[in-house]
Each structure stands twice: as structure tokens, then as C-alpha cells.
Amino acid sequence: MVESRPSEPARLRLRLGETIFALDSEKVVIGRSRSCDIRLREDTVSRLHAAFVIRDAALVLEDLGSSNGTYLNGERVLTPCVVTAGDAVRFGSLRGSIEPADAPPARSRTGEDGSGDGFSSGLTDARPAGFGWRVLAVGADAVLLALGSLVPFAPLLATLAVERYLLPADTLPPSLEAKSVLAGACGALWLVYAFYFVVHGWARRGGTPGMKFCGLRLLDWRQRIPIGYGRALLRLAAGLVTVLTLGLGFLLVLFRRDRKSLHDLLAGTMVVRRRRFGGAVPPA
Questions:
Q1: Which residues pair with 273 in a beta bridge?
Q2: According to the model, what pLDDT value does residue 43 have?
Q3: Would you tell me which CATH number, out of the four given (2.60.40.1260, 3.40.718.10, 2.60.200.20, 3.40.50.2000), belongs to the domain 12-100?
């Protein structure tokens, strides 16, 4: 028996992350099977997981005996339930929402500027990022950090260059104390730059520039972006633990199915790669 909820004309659609699926057929089956109307390539989704059915001008959600459950607004679907615009749904670990079919295209709530309060990452094109992609992202970040370091250290480099090549022989060079103060100020500027590059990138933009270049995104344990400054700082501290293990903590990515490193496990984060950012074969 259908749970009693106010019904409405079934002119709705399903949004999973940034992917939209029409729900205008009499029955729309969701699962991993090739026969499904909406095929989700996700281990937590069953072959025949759930179905949307139009009944009496209402859209009804049914679970088809899935292993990891179908959820509507946080409650497991045990009997068919009428869904309405604004409802939150989950199939296994993939989160989505129901919205009007005529709703205007919406940007993700994080946007490219990292603003907003986060969104579910339940995308059908996202997978845990492999070791090769993550190493490539770290390398790209290292290059960008090194190039960016030229800016905060420019005053110190200019001072040393003038002293070495342009200062007349009869002119006293800057004192060691003055150069030490300048070096300290440049170092402080670099720390601000590095903090913005890494922590702000993790906290508000879903990843560092190197990660984005490789199509990677950083999620929290609920698979949401952005992870926020608290978790970003925790991940930074956990990263120091990984460094203390001489990088062995990072090698966990090679052996874990979810591709989590030691600092991901300690901070409650995960790194995924969205295939639409590029179809290249991942590095070995």
C-alpha cells in the first residue's frame, strides 16, 4: 500500500550531482544492470535497485530488494512512497534529489568559486582516484607552489641580486640583520600563500589546483564538497603524520579499494576522479 502523502502530477526529474534524469515514463528502473533505464555504475547499487512508478498522477518510489537500501528523506523505503519536489533520495551511497521537471538548470552550490554550503557528490561518473592520478596531482601542485614562491620571495631575491651585481664597491651592503628580517617577512608571506593554496583549496574549492588539473575532487566522509576549514586543517595535520611515516601512509592508496591514504583515513576524507574531466587512461 502506498504511504499516504499529498500527491501531485508526476512532472518531476531526478538529479544525481550534476546529472539529471527525466522521470516521465510509466516506470523508470534504477540499478547497475544494462537493462535499467538509469544505469548507475556504483558498487553500493544493486543490479535492480529501485524504481520510480507513476500511479494516480503521482510519482512513487519503490525499492526492488536492494542490498544497501533506498532512502527517501533519510528514511529507508520499505513500502512504496510518493515523492514530491524537494525530496532527498539515496540509492546505496549515491545521493540525489527530486526537482520539478521545468526547474531551470542549476549550478552546483559550490560553483567554481567554492562558495556555498556543499552538495552531494553522488555522481555516476566519479570513482576513487588511483595512485597514479594522485601522484600526478601532487607533482603539479609542487610545481605550482615552487613557481608561486617567486612572488613572496621576490623582494629578498631582488635585494641579493642588487647587492651581488649592482651595488658599488664603496657602498655598504644591507646588514645581515636587515636581510634576516626581510627573509622572515618573505617566509611569512610564503606561508600565507601556501595556506591559501592548500588549505583554502581543500576547504572551499574541492581541491588544490593540481587536483583540479587532474580532474580530482576532495570529499568528506559524507561525500560532500566543500569539506570546510576544520576538516581541511585536520587533513593537513594528518598529512604530517603521513610524512613522518616516510610516505608509507600514502602507499595505502595502492592497496585499499576506496583508494584512501593514511591522512584520508585520519581526516575522514576521500579523493575521487570525475571521468568527464578527461578520458585519458590513468597513469600506471
A1: 127, 216
A2: 78
A3: 2.60.200.20
